[in-house]
Amino acid sequence: MRRLIFAFTTGLMLITAPATFAQTVGYADAIKILAASCGKDIESYCKSATLANNGITQCLEKNQSKLSAKCNADRLVVISLIQARLAAQAEAPKLCQRDAAQYCKGVKAGAGHVLRCLLKAQPSVSEKCNTAIDLAGYR
Amino acid sequence: MNKLLLAGLSAAFLAVSASGLTAQTKLSRNEIINSLQGAQQKVDLTADELQQAALENIQKYPGANAPNTLPLADKLASLRQFNVEITFDFDSARIRPESFETVGLIADALHTPYLQGQTFFIVGHTDAKGAREYNLELSLKRAQAVREALVTTFRVPGEYLFAVGLGEEQLRDPANPDAAVNRRVQLINLGYR
């Protein structure tokens, strides 16, 4: 329950706070909120909708007038949480490019070798890159 | 009829680790990563070929249960892989909300640099209850549903994910063909292509 509240406030932060202070959560933790807050509504109004093709998201939006208040609030939080994590993961390689060149010279790209190197070099790695790794959920 | 309906029940709640132990502990992203990473060999096998092999196994060796394992079984067994249980609606490919988190964990794992850029098969399996052709079809639809969820809701790049349904053609526990352990979604790492 505490986690749920935490995740919820995180979602609010993402909307209201500048990006540099944002936190992100993983995809499993995000979608777990949807199952917890909207599980009942999904079984009532979206019995044939699936996670595929964003079916659940679209069905909940279509039926928003019937949903519980909690589900209506959290369904938007979940979308923003997933987007935030996607954005953070797209940004991380860019924000760590310089550190990778400096501390992981000669490390073969692919299969997470560069990330492993950056994690090992954490004390030397720039704050910018370390934060990017945190936000991407890569630690 | 009853038998056919039971085949739809390819659902259970236990997460099973790749080592074959029944895991009572909660499934984690890192557990999935550790089991899938480190693909070494280059594998010359497409999802279509594997799907075709399962169909031919039924056509060549008809009967209530598969008399032998797939010719490709040994090849598959040598690859980095992980088994998860995902709950679907009865007789349907609709993932139930209680399994959203498990699909999210797969997304968490596939979105890490450890696994990015590698090709994966998402393979659906049923137990041996019901007709083999029916099970093949249902397991393919379920594997496709998991793939679609990963690609759309969680935006895992689709070019690396291929759905295959093996029905009851590759049981995990052939000595107990109706056991729950046979109902699973298997992720197999085919490496960089």
Automatic annotation (TrEMBL), chain B:
InterPro entries: Bact_OuterMem_StrucFunc, OMP_bac, OmpA-like, OmpA-like_sf. Residues 1-23 form the signal peptide. This is OmpA-like domain-containing protein. It comes from the Bacteria. It is found in: Cell outer membrane. Transmembrane segments: none annotated. One of its GO terms (cellular component) is cell outer membrane. CDD domains: OmpA_C-like. PROSITE patterns: OMPA_2. The keyword Signal applies.
